[in-house]
């Protein structure tokens, strides 16, 4: 199966688009589907980028506290207070395959995408600003992730909807080793020191999202995300020699809101 096709199928199961739901009432279910393209680092820490076709599906079922979105992953709200929310959380981590690694293929192991599951807590200060935390673990046991975030929705510019999000993510030892560690065999092939990092801060991210309606049911969604590697992720010889601390991701999609 081609790499881009397998990633597309995996994303179809795990992703959805958060836009278009804002105009609905609190009790109105939402379903939006679309397709687009995402350009992202070829692998975590890479200086090169890859482009993937991405299907989008946005499901919002407020009466059950259920949502599935690219912005928030899978969330099932079990607390549902006026300001405090919390419950089940799910997402996934991109991997890297032979084509993604390019000249490093055969020198570094490929990593398949992995689903993660855990919980979350969120505090809504008002409809425009919230902050929260996600704690999740690889469902196959390959690492745990902790993420703090704050999101602000600025006022609309005409019909243009905006969202700004700041995130900080850390990893445990297993996750840091999986993405940024270098075994003795890989170190010899890459001509760099072996690297067995401990967990800690991994990435700080600033994301800006836009949605422009093009009709009653359609619109264009765009996202620009700048990430900066931290701690042992940034210090990895893999990043210092072959990658970059600066991680840029862009996406554009056409969305149909049912």
Automatic annotation (TrEMBL):
Q: What is this protein called?
A: MipA/OmpV family protein
Q: Which family does it belong to?
A: Belongs to the MipA/OmpV family.
Q: Does the keyword Signal apply?
A: yes
Where is this chain's protein located in or outside the cell? Cell outer membrane
Q: Pfam families per the record? A: MipA (PF06629)
Please verify whether the record's keywords include Membrane.
yes
Question: Taxonomic lineage per UniProt?
Answer: Bacteria, Pseudomonadati, Pseudomonadota, Gammaproteobacteria, Lysobacterales
Q: Which PANTHER family did the record assign?
A: MLTA-INTERACTING PROTEIN-RELATED
Major subcellular site? membrane
Per the UniProt entry, the signal peptide is: 1-21
UniProt keyword annotations, A-Z: Cell outer membrane, Membrane, Signal
């Amino acid at each position: 199966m081609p790499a881009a096709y397998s990633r597309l199928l995996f994303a179809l199961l795990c992703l959805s688009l958060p836009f278009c739901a804002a105009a609905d009432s609190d009790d109105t279910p939402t379903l939006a589907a679309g397709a687009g393209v995402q350009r992202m680092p070829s692998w975590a820490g890479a200086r090169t980028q890859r482009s993937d076709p991405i299907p989008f599906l946005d499901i919002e079922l407020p009466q059950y506290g259920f949502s599935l979105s690219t912005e928030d992953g899978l969330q099932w709200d079990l607390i549902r207070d006026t300001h405090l929310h919390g419950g089940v959380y799910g997402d996934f981590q991109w991997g890297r395959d032979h084509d993604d690694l390019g000249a490093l293929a055969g020198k570094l192991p490929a990593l398949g995408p992995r689903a993660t599951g855990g919980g979350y807590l969120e505090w809504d200060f008002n409809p425009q600003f919230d902050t929260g935390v996600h704690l999740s673990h690889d469902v196959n046991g390959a690492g745990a992730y902790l993420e703090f975030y704050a999101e602000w929705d600025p006022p609309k510019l005409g019909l243009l909807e905006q969202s700004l999000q700041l995130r900080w993510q850390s990893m445990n030892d297993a996750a840091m080793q999986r993405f940024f560690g270098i075994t003795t065999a890989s170190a010899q092939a890459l001509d760099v020191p072996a690297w067995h990092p401990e967990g800690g801060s991994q990435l700080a991210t600033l994301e800006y999202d836009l949605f422009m309606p093009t009709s009653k049911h359609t619109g264009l969604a765009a996202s620009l995300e700048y990430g900066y590697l931290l701690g042992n992720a940034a210090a990895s010889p893999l990043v210092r020699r072959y990658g970059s601390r600066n991680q840029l991701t862009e996406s554009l999609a056409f969305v149909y809101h049912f």
